[in-house]
Amino acid sequence: MPKMKTDRGAAKRIKVTGSGKLRRRRAFKNHLLEKKSSTRTRRLSRPAEVSSADERQIKRLLGL
Questions:
Q1: What parts of the chain have a pLDDT lower than 50?
Q2: What integer pLDDT is reported at residue 11 of this predicted model?
Q3: 28 near 19, Cβ under 8 Å?
Q4: Can you tell me the distance from the alpha carbon of 18 to that of 11, in angstroms, rounded to the nearest whole number?
Q5: What pLDDT was estimated at residue 1?
Q6: What is the radius of gyration, based on Cα positions, of the chain?
Q7: Which residues, at least 6 apart from 48, have a Cβ–Cβ distance to it below 8 Å?
Q8: What is the rounded distance in angstroms from the CA atom of residue 15 to the CA atom of residue 21?
Q9: Which of 24, 11, 19 is nearest to 51 (CA)?
Q10: What is the pLDDT of residue 20?
Q11: Is 39 helix (H, G, I), strand (E, B) or coil?
Q12: Is the separation of the CB atoms in 4 and 31 below 8 Å?
């Protein structure tokens, strides 16, 4: 049986915290920022936790 390979795309986007939770960047902060309020763009720059529904699948992609 070959080794499991880490999904490199997922590894670049999702980090594991010290307590084992998964962190990701939020979407919608790349372009067209002029029309978005500063409150909204500030909120989007904070990292988000991965939802519990997706956690099992993402951990498999990361080889955890």
A1: none
A2: 96
A3: no
A4: 16
A5: 86
A6: 15
A7: 23, 24, 25, 26
A8: 8
A9: 24
A10: 93
A11: helix
A12: no
In this structure, what token pair is assigned to residue 53?
Answer: 């529904």
Tell me if 1 sits within 8 A of 49, measured CB to CB. Answer: no
Two tokens, residue 50: 């991965």
C-alpha–C-alpha distance, residues 56 and 1, integer Å: 22
| Backbone φ and ψ of 48, nearest 5° | -115, 155
- 30 closest CA partner among 14, 18, 45: 45
For 55, the enclosing helix (H) or strand (E) is helix 52-62
Report d(CA 15, CA 36) in Å as an integer.
27
Distance between CA atoms of residues 24 and 14, nearest Å: 5
Residue at token pair 């010290």: 18
